[in-house]
């Protein structure tokens, strides 16, 4: 009798739980089942009428039903809470494509940026970063670089002159002699900076930037120059970069070379940047002319050196796919913003 | 330097294609910048003979021609009026692609078939100088001896390949066909064929050179002067082969004598001059420096005043030629010339360079002299010129030759070292390979063990030591040897310690911080216009301008004395483009002369400039930017009003570290804004990065942190307008003593009820004690002390 009631109460309660749609209904069911006048409570009271030998069994059954119903209620409650939370979260959804807020960051200019990068690369390789004057004496810019006055080599550059002895440096090589006069070999230096030439057209700017590298040591050779430049170019343009030497002429190096670097855009396959050749003419370099060493007070019998130099405007343009050199000096915000 | 494939073939047996030759030359340092195929636009153009001309049935102005083109007779319709039956003309056939862009195909003209077109000289890319009739308006009438069907490039000798080669300044000897030919010999392992230098002389003739001219060299700038005479001169068009050569390398053919001098110039690199002997006054050539007051009319239609710095070739009376640069009109070859005197000379390169620059005249001749012509070359040039006279049968060479030389170029002997050369190159090249290469270049070399004994020919003045020999060896051996070499960074190089540049490193920190705060980095021209100081209201005496003597334009003629100029211009430029919200900065130098005219190098100072034009941006935003930068250094700076002329006097400040101004910042002066066409609310700051980089690195020392709570109190006082926030905060701090934790201004309020010239300032004061929790009484005591001090020092009253 009691057992039947218990069973039907359980069935009824389970049905109610399944049908419940809100916490309120859950609480009502809880009251109806477990409350002071709840079914289970009254059924427990009915234990008195059960034969004593049956009591443990019936008691266990009632407890079983209680546990099952409590669990069912708990489950349903969790389910409903979850559904409610989901609903709330859903209603709070925003348009994530609306713009970010707060002060947006600015950007570094591509030229100083590439200087930062090259300084990091070269300092790691044992180079010290130095600077020199931009308004320079004819001596350091030319004569100490084995370019005497009225020498044909002067034709290689259109120079801005202040007067007969003072000019705007036409090459960062001007720093070489200054450093050789004060530094004791062996040493490695790089000098990034502004340079000037009386030249202005679609591919030339009268103000531009170069980086000069100089290594003075006892036994360095063209092969060491190749090693050093290979590493610097790999770090700059990527690990698959290769370099190639071609003969050239600079008064301050002998032998002198031009260095071609595999095109970082097409990786040597040929593209519009490298005009289909797969290589870009990027650096001038060579073994320091012993006359230059001697002029700066370095014993050319004991020491040898190599030097290299290249344009940073071009480097910045290649690394950032900048098509027009004029963009670099106009400071149009629409250009600068693209460097973010 | 332009040379042609056929011209080179005359001196070397070349068994490679023009493309391959170009590649080899480039790989050896003679960079072929362009290969020009003369006949690129001459294919499908042949010699045709007009057999028959009939009227076009439908058009009055057209005629129908039957033309023999060798293989067949074709019909061509033309509107040309200068053609007749029997004349030979260039015929472009289907497939032709002429230099003026015309492409030929078979067409019908007014219903009649036409297989092609007759060509004018212009359509073949030639002019009257090249060929008679090529300049006329109409069809080019070809010489009768040509055979119909001959391709026109063969018929007119327009089938050569031209190389445009970049010659480096150390290789003046390669500014000639023979110079390039020597390189080709070395590259291909061939012998240079001897140039034909023979010429006919009438040994029975009585007259000698001295009957026509005498030479006196009176200046040390002339190293060698040779003169020869030619009588019975025939001034006429040179033969086609000579015109073809000159035309190919871009020299205008003129007449026999002038063409010979130009031919020798290109072929041997020896500038020559031809005088009309009849116009040499006193039959005397005097090589001397010019005199003040003298002048000369020259071939470029100018008249130049001479002076002592200019070397001239004069006769007994007047200068005839500016030596090595340009000839005068009085003594040049004309159609009437009967006797010609050739000059083959060598001059000091500096003298020629200075003169060429002085007058702004650059000729083929001056270009060669300015790079250096070796003394031995004069003889080669002269003999070659006389040979050409004989070959062209355009005159009789007179016996005897004047040759006055003050210098000579001899073969020099140097000793090289095989292992030193290999050490320089970092590769191992066998001594026999070195010997082979050097010999192929005309440097006669023998190897004794490690020693290379070299005889360097006069034209290779650039070869002096092992480094020079190393270059010759490797450029011929091939730089591709390095392609096969791996890299081994410290095989020979000593390991050295790399150091960043202290200022660049500090700037990098500043720049990155500014970028995080929304600023964009600028890089501007350091070259500015000469009115920079006026525009910025800067004192000229303290900002002496470094001015360029040869500027490109006034806008970029001086070095900037302030970064403000560049940055204000950048703002103006951006505003003109419609760009808004501009926060810019730039790290760069300013340049100020110590004295004028400039005698020593100017002072170059590195600065960081910041400029802002942005809605709502104010002085205190800028102050934050400046302080954030200064806080990255150990600089302890005090704020003062600034007296920078380009800043608003009331809205600007300096941070000073001792006597040094480390930063100036504020609103830009309204007059300056006007000078740059800018609106008024522009803010500018400049920071002395050079000074900051020299300060010791910032050190930190952390104070103990109390474990007891911080007490907050607000205090508002009314003070006179002239009292500053800084003064009040300093007083508050000192009154709080060791309980002081922080104090800050949070409001400034002005109203009529406060009274005129009064303001209320509200501060938030934070107190803390390391030892205990502060009681209300403790705090009250301090706050009373704070207020008392403010009342006493600043007449403040509690609001």
What distinguishing features does this structure have?
heterodimer; A: 340 residues; alpha+beta; BirA Bifunctional Protein, domain 2; 2 domains; 19% strand; B: 799 residues; Phenylalanyl-tRNA Synthetase, Chain B, domain 1; OB fold (Dihydrolipoamide Acetyltransferase, E2P); 6 domains; 5-stranded antiparallel sheet; 27% strand
CATH superfamily of the largest domain in chain A: Bira Bifunctional Protein, Domain 2
Q: Percent of residues of chain A in helical segments? A: 40-55%
Strand order of the largest sheet of chain A: 1-4-5-9-8-7-6
Query: What is the tally of beta strands of chain B?
Result: 38
Termini Cα gap of chain A: 82 Å
Give the CATH level 1 class of the largest domain in chain A: Alpha Beta
Named at the architecture level, the CATH assignment of the largest domain in chain B is 3-Layer(bba) Sandwich
- How many strands appear in the DSSP assignment of chain A? 9
Could you estimate the helical fraction of the residues of chain B in percent? 25-40%
CATH topology of the largest domain in chain A: BirA Bifunctional Protein, domain 2
Main sheet overview of chain A: 7 strands, mixed
Protein model, in words:
The complex is a heterodimer of chains A (340) and B (799). By secondary structure, chain A is α+β, with helices and mostly antiparallel strands. Chain A has two domains: 2-91; 110-339, Bira Bifunctional Protein, Domain 2 (BirA Bifunctional Protein, domain 2), CATH 3.30.930. In chain A, 41% of the residues lie in helices and 19% in strands. Chain A has helices at residues 2-19, 23-34, 39-45, 55-91, 110-124, 138-141, 174-182, 222-237, 290-295, 312-319, 327-330, 333-336, and strands at residues 128-129, 135-137, 166-168, 187-196, 207-217, 243-250, 253-262, 279-288, 304-311. In chain A, the strands form two sheets. In chain A, strands 1-4-5-9-8-7-6 form a seven-stranded mixed β-sheet, with helices on both faces. A two-stranded antiparallel sheet of chain A has the order 2-3. Chain A is rod-shaped and about 130 Å long. Chain A starts with a helix and ends with a helix. Chain B has 799 residues and is an alpha+beta fold. Chain B has six domains: 2-38 and 161-188, Phenylalanyl-tRNA Synthetase, Chain B, domain 1 (2-Layer Sandwich), CATH 3.30.56; 45-155, Beta Barrel (OB fold (Dihydrolipoamide Acetyltransferase, E2P)); 209-405, Phenylalanyl-trna Synthetase, Chain B, domain 3 (Phenylalanyl-tRNA Synthetase, Chain B, domain 3, 3-Layer(bba) Sandwich), CATH 3.50.40; 412-482, 2-Layer Sandwich (Phenylalanyl-tRNA Synthetase, Chain B, domain 1); 502-694, BirA Bifunctional Protein, domain 2, CATH 3.30.930.10; 711-798, Ferrodoxin-fold anticodon-binding domain (Alpha-Beta Plaits). Chain B contains 20 helices and 38 strands. In chain B, helix 19 packs across helix 20. Chain B starts with a strand and ends with a strand. Classes of the chains: A alpha+beta (340), B alpha+beta (799). At the A-B interface, helix 5, strand 1, strand 2, strand 4 and strand 5 of A face helix 7, helix 10, helix 12, helix 13 and strand 26 of B.
């Amino acid at each position: 009798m009691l057992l039947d009631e218990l069973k039907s109460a359980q069935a009824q309660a389970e049905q109610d739980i399944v049908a419940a749609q809100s916490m309120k209904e859950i609480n009502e069911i809880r009251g109806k089942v477990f409350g002071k006048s709840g079914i289970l409570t009254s059924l427990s009271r009915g234990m008195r009428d059960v034969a004593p030998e049956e009591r443990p069994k019936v008691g266990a059954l009632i407890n079983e039903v209680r546990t099952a119903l409590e669990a069912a209620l708990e489950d349903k409650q969790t389910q409903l809470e979850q559904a409610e939370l989901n609903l709330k979260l859903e209603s709070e959804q925003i348009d994530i494509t609306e713009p970010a807020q707060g002060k947006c960051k600015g950007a570094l200019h591509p030229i100083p940026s590439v200087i930062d990068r090259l300084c990091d690369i070269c300092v790691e390789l044992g180079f010290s970063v130095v600077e020199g004057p931009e308004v320079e004496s004819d001596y350091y810019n030319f004569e100490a670089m084995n370019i005497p006055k009225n020498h044909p080599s002067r034709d290689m550059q259109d120079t801005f002159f202040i007067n007969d002895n003072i000019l705007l440096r036409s090459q960062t090589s001007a720093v070489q002699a200054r450093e050789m006069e004060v530094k004791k070999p062996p040493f490695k230096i790089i000098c990034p900076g502004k340079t000037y030439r009386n030249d202005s057209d679609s591919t030339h700017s009268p103000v531009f930037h170069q980086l000069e590298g100089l290594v003075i040591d006892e036994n360095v050779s063209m092969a060491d120059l190749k090693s050093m430049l290979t590493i610097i170019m790999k770090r700059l343009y990527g690990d698959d970069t290769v370099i190639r030497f071609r003969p050239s002429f600079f008064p301050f190096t002998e032998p002198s070379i031009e260095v071609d670097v595999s095109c970082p855009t097409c990786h040597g396959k040929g593209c519009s940047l490298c005009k289909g050749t797969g290589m870009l003419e990027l650096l001038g370099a060579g073994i320091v002319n012993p006359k230059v060493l001697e002029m700066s007070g370095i014993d050319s019998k004991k020491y040898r050196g190599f030097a290299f130099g290249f344009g940073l405007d071009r480097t910045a343009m290649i690394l950032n796919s900048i098509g027009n050199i004029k963009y670099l000096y106009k400071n149009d915000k629409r250009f600068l913003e693209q460097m973010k | 330097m332009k040379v042609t494939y056929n011209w080179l073939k005359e001196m070397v047996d070349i068994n490679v294609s023009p493309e391959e030759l170009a590649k080899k030359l480039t790989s050896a340092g003679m960079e072929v910048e362009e290969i020009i195929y003369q006949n690129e636009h001459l294919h499908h153009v042949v010699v045709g003979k007009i057999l028959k001309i009939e009227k076009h049935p439908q058009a009055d102005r057209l005629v129908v021609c039957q033309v023999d083109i060798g293989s067949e007779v074709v019909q061509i319709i033309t509107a040309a009026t200068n053609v007749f039956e029997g004349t030979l003309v260039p015929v472009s056939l289907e497939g032709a692609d002429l230099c003026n862009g015309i492409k030929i195909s078979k067409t019908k003209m007014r219903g009649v078939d036409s297989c092609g077109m007759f060509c004018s000289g212009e359509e073949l890319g030639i002019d009257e100088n090249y060929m008679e009739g090529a300049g006329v308006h109409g069809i080019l009438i070809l010489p009768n001896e040509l055979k119909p069907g001959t391709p026109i490039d063969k018929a007119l000798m327009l089938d050569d390949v031209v190389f445009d080669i970049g010659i480096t300044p150390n290789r003046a000897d390669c500014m000639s066909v023979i110079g390039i030919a020597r390189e080709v010999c070395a590259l291909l392992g061939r012998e240079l064929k001897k140039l034909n230098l023979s010429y006919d002389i009438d040994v029975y003739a009585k007259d000698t050179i001295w009957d026509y001219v005498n030479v006196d060299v009176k200046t040390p700038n002339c190293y060698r002067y040779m003169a020869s005479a030619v009588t019975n001169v025939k001034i006429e068009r040179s033969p086609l082969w000579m015109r073809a050569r000159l035309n190919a390398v871009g020299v205008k053919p003129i007449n026999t004598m002038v063409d010979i001098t130009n031919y020798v110039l290109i072929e041997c690199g020896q500038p020559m001059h031809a005088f009309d002997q009849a116009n040499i006054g006193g039959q005397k050539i005097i090589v001397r420096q010019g005199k003040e007051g003298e002048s000369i009319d020259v071939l470029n239609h100018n008249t130049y005043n001479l002076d002592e710095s200019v070397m001239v070739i004069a006769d007994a009376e007047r200068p005839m030629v500016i030596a090595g640069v340009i000839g005068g009109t009085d003594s040049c070859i004309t159609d009437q010339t009967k006797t010609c005197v050739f000059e083959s000379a060598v001059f000091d390169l500096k003298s020629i360079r200075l003169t060429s620059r002085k007058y702004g005249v650059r000729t083929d001749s001056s270009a060669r002299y300015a790079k250096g012509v070796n003394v031995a070359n004069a003889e080669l040039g002269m003999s070659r010129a006389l040979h050409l006279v004989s070959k062209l049968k355009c005159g009789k060479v007179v016996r005897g030759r004047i040759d006055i030389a003050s210098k000579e170029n001899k073969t020099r002997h140097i000793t090289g070292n095989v292992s030193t050369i290999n050490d320089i190159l970092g590769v191992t090249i066998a001594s026999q390979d070195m010997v082979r290469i050097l010999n192929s270049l005309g440097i006669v070399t023998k190897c004794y063990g490690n020693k290379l004994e070299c005889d360097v020919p006069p034209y290779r003045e650039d070869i002096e030591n092992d480094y020079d020999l190393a270059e010759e060896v490797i450029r011929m051996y091939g730089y591709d040897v390095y392609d096969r070499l791996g890299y081994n960074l410290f095989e020979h190089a000593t390991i050295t310690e790399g150091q960043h540049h202290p200022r660049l490193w500090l700037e990098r920190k500043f720049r990155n911080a500014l970028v995080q705060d929304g600023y964009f980095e600028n890089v501007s021209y350091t070259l500015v216009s000469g009115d920079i100081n006026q525009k910025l209201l800067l004192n000229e005496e303290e900002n002496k301008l470094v001015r360029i003597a040869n500027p490109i334009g006034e806008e970029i003629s001086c070095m900037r004395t302030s970064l403000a100029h560049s940055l204000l211009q950048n703002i103006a430029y951006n505003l003109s483009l419609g760009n808004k919200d501009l926060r810019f900065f730039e790290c760069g130098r300013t340049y100020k002369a110590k004295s004028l005219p400039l005698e020593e190098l100017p002072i170059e100072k590195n600065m960081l400039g910041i400029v802002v034009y942005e809605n709502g941006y104010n002085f205190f935003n800028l102050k934050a930017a400046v302080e954030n930068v200064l806080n990255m250094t150990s600089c302890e700076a005090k704020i003062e009003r600034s007296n920078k002329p380009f800043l608003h006097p009331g809205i600007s400040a300096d941070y000073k570290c001792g006597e040094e101004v480390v930063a100036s910042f504020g609103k830009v002066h309204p007059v300056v804004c006007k000078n740059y066409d800018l609106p008024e609310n522009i803010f500018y700051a400049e920071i002395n990065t050079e000074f900051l980089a020299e300060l010791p690195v910032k050190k930190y020392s952390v104070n103990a942190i109390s474990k007891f709570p911080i007490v907050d109190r607000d205090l508002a006082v009314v003070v006179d307008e002239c009292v500053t926030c800084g003064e009040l905060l300093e007083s508050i701090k000192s009154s709080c003593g060791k309980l002081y934790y922080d104090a800050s201004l949070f409001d400034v309020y002005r109203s009529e009820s406060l009274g005129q010239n009064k303001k209320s300032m509200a501060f938030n004061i934070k107190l803390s004690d390391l030892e205990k929790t502060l009681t209300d009484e403790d705090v009250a005591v301090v706050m009373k002390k704070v207020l008392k001090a403010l009342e006493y020092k600043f007449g403040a009253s509690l609001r």
